[in-house]
DNA sequence: CGCGTGCTTGAAATACATCAACGATAGTGG
DNA sequence: CCACTATCGTTGATGTATTTCAAGCACGCG
């Protein structure tokens, strides 16, 4: 059964593509369901496909030779991922794990050259995506190198809430389950330190925690923390 | 006067380009000299050109809103840099400063679409470059997040020596002037810590320091440090 | 020769990790 | 439906790697 182009029309990845282009892209794609906590692909595995997330949230994890894990990013619905091929790589540089049940489109790498020539807008958007990720990653290096843990966690939380926030009666909450350990792996610290800081912020009415849940109740106050601009009396 | 294609033939950036392609690329380029400690372009400045380093060494520096500096990378002869345009950016994300006197080729951004269509190999190689930098940057995030300062500095030194090493009678030395402060800005630490560790390594006969100079005399021992595999008695 | 820039090295301070123990939550299976 | 268990979270006490503060030194350029 053919996939309907309304699935992907309007996504940034296909900005500027006309209907024919969308059809050309879709006819080569295959959609599949990925259960929570299941790998879409594994680090160092042969990169046979590239992907688009239709719904859900995916965690991209790099494991160091020593076995330490770092979360490179979270993928939101509408984003491309596993696009190693477009950078001339033959293996995936990280693992991708479904944070919740997901639906993904996948293309075999072999169709990339064809798509590239037939749908230039898609090609350009893909490179833009990579460029953005390079920017973000370099910004992260600056952050880790120059700021202390408290600011890093605050920034990370603000980013998560901005990119994947869900409005609730009491504030904005991160739209997928996330543990203290996950936050630690995004910020280069330990779950203990994350837990302590979240508890402190909870006392100050900035956030509200929960098992695999973070709800930001006072985004403005959190911004002040991120920029280290609170008065000492606030602590 | 036209530039000679022997200048750039054989560079990885032009792998697979035939003579006509090289001419097409070169005829649009302009070469210029950049004095030591001079900026090639400035962070947040409008990205009007992209560049290729013909000779010398260039330091790419990102400055955070708070004024902290981080060295994103060093560019060696033969590498492309300032390629913001290819990622859909209109400003440079970092500054580029000549670490020594340099010779660079530059192209106005406006020729990119033309080059892209007429020299596909050049285009593909450019994207490969960006992909490699994304990989490296992500690896750096993992390193900063999981390893301690000593290992990070050791790794960084090994990388510098590998990419820009110059063989001497007593070992391999970094081929351009680099201060302790520079090394600190590459590893997310302070010049004091760098200085202390280099001094300690000098006592152990692993490196030899000097004003704006580092000479690695025992790369193997430095590797053991990088992997934290020394016996305690070594310290 | 003097001055700026880079380097060294001690002593004190601290942010954060580590160690350790316990408490809470949610899913599972009887 | 409730007990069981795995996973996740909290929080105190202790330890330490690294920064910060401070001072003096050395190299090389004009």
TrEMBL record, chains A, B:
<keyword id="KW-0805">Transcription regulation</keyword>
<dbReference type="InterPro" id="IPR014710">
    <property type="entry name" value="RmlC-like_jellyroll"/>
</dbReference>
<dbReference type="Pfam" id="PF00027">
    <property type="entry name" value="cNMP_binding"/>
</dbReference>
<dbReference type="GO" id="GO:0003677">
    <property type="term" value="F:DNA binding"/>
</dbReference>
<feature type="domain" description="HTH crp-type">
    <location>
        <begin position="147"/>
        <end position="220"/>
    </location>
</feature>
<keyword id="KW-0804">Transcription</keyword>
<dbReference type="InterPro" id="IPR012318">
    <property type="entry name" value="HTH_CRP"/>
</dbReference>
<dbReference type="GO" id="GO:0005829">
    <property type="term" value="C:cytosol"/>
</dbReference>
<dbReference type="InterPro" id="IPR050397">
    <property type="entry name" value="Env_Response_Regulators"/>
</dbReference>
<keyword id="KW-0238">DNA-binding</keyword>
<dbReference type="GO" id="GO:0003700">
    <property type="term" value="F:DNA-binding transcription factor activity"/>
</dbReference>
<dbReference type="InterPro" id="IPR036388">
    <property type="entry name" value="WH-like_DNA-bd_sf"/>
</dbReference>
<dbReference type="InterPro" id="IPR036390">
    <property type="entry name" value="WH_DNA-bd_sf"/>
</dbReference>
<protein>
    <submittedName>
        <fullName>CRP-like cAMP-binding protein</fullName>
    </submittedName>
</protein>
<dbReference type="Pfam" id="PF13545">
    <property type="entry name" value="HTH_Crp_2"/>
</dbReference>
<dbReference type="InterPro" id="IPR000595">
    <property type="entry name" value="cNMP-bd_dom"/>
</dbReference>
<dbReference type="InterPro" id="IPR018490">
    <property type="entry name" value="cNMP-bd_dom_sf"/>
</dbReference>
<feature type="domain" description="Cyclic nucleotide-binding">
    <location>
        <begin position="13"/>
        <end position="106"/>
    </location>
</feature>
